[in-house]
Design a protein that fits this description.
This protein is mainly β and 435 residues long. Among the domains are: 108-220, no CATH class; 295-433, NPCBM/NEW2 domain (Jelly Rolls), CATH 2.60.120.1060. Helix content is 6%, strand content 45%. It has 2 helices and 34 strands. It has helices at 20-38, 40-44, and strands at residues 49-53, 58-68, 72-76, 82-85, 90-94, 108-112, 117-126, 129-134, 138-144, 148-152, 175-179, 185-193, 197-202, 209-212, 216-220, 234-239, 243-247, 259-262, 265-269, 275-279, 283-289, 293-295, 303-306, 317-318, 327-329, 332-334, 337-341, 344-349, 356-363, 373-379, 382-390, 399-402, 408-415, 424-433. The strands form 5 sheets. Strands 1, 2, 3, 4, 5, 16, 17, 18, 19, 20 and 21 form an 11-stranded antiparallel beta sheet that branches. The longest helix has 19 residues, at 20-38. The protein is globular and about 60 Å long.
Length: 435
Amino acid sequence: MNRPRSPRPFPKRKPINLSRGAFRALAAALGVAALLGASSAAHAAWDNCTLVTADMHEQRHLSINTWTASEGLSATDEKGNLVNFPSRNILSLASGEESSRQTVHTGWTLKLRNGDTLFGSPAGVKGNYLLFDAPDIDENLAIPIKMIDAIVAPAAGGASSPTSPTRLPDAGAQDLVIFKNSGDKLQGTFDGLDAQSLQFQADGATKDTAIDLSTVQAIVFGGSRPPRTIPPLSVRISFASSTLTVPLAAQPPRQRESFTWSLAQASLTDALGAAHALPVSRINHMEIVGGRIVFLTEIDPDSETQISFIGSPWPFQVNKNVIGQELRVGRNSFARGIGVHTQSTLTYTLDGSFDTFTVRVGLDDSAEPLGAARASIVLDGKILWHADALKPGELSSPITLPVKGGRQLELHADPANHLDVQGRVDWIEPALLRD
């Protein structure tokens, strides 16, 4: 197109300092107008998000522009400046409009072995993957069956509860079907399902039996559980109801990055390589897993030793005290930590990539009035820290210890008196840090 000539030369212009609105206008001019205009309301929740770095520095009033594993997260701050964060340096992101409403869950509960939970309905099986329709995310989301703990039917009335999930028995070496009305259990092998029925070969049978899904309370998956080792760099996405952890880098044999964010649209690639669009308005919160900070709550110990004075077993609990209640020390509650009983040792294998270990330790408030304990932290046989007299309600100051090059980390909780009663020790926010 021929443009009319200007009657005089254009004057020199000062450099432009792009505001957030101007940046979006420029982005539209560069060809992403469709993304910007697709859902400005959907993106509004992330126009005022808060980012916490691995150094515990908080960045408020950010608007996310793009996020990829290779290039990190690009955002615009409240002054219109572009800021960038490598993914490994991020601890968490929270939406500026995080939902506080009580969500009614009307579907099945899919419990994964890494702690993730999805709500929706099973849609079928493809090879070694379960296809699951999760309204928060998308249809036909492929989940490796080896990563599934259980599929639990809705309670009476069709509702499910994420806060008080059904307590399920261990399936052992085989899979387990639990029936609704009778509570009867059937051991055998899970062979598939669709929206209406379950294919299950009962122990001792020679062929599958079709079981009406409406009669099933839960399917518990057995067999050896893959241990939770030091995780790859991933993002744990929290929706109104579901949570799902997605690796940030491409996973073989795929070449496409598993998670990307572009203005008003995020996307993930599932275990079968299928892409799923995620409107960002559905996302409440995100947390980086396997970055500069790795919490011990994300890793299974290589061994646990627990010797009870009165013979009762007290296995450790993740994000709960040893009796299954919230972690609470000094009348303060904590979302992340490990609850143990005295005469306990947890041993973790490290990969040599971590520089420091941080934690706080105390006796849980439920240990009143008789609880007393000693605690110590050992690296490769060397005691790095110890306390001789933990008392209920008293939480230690943050403990920071060098672990560079270390390979075996041990957390010891021991009785401080001959009774060994109510020795409920909480390891609060135990974290391995990389420089």
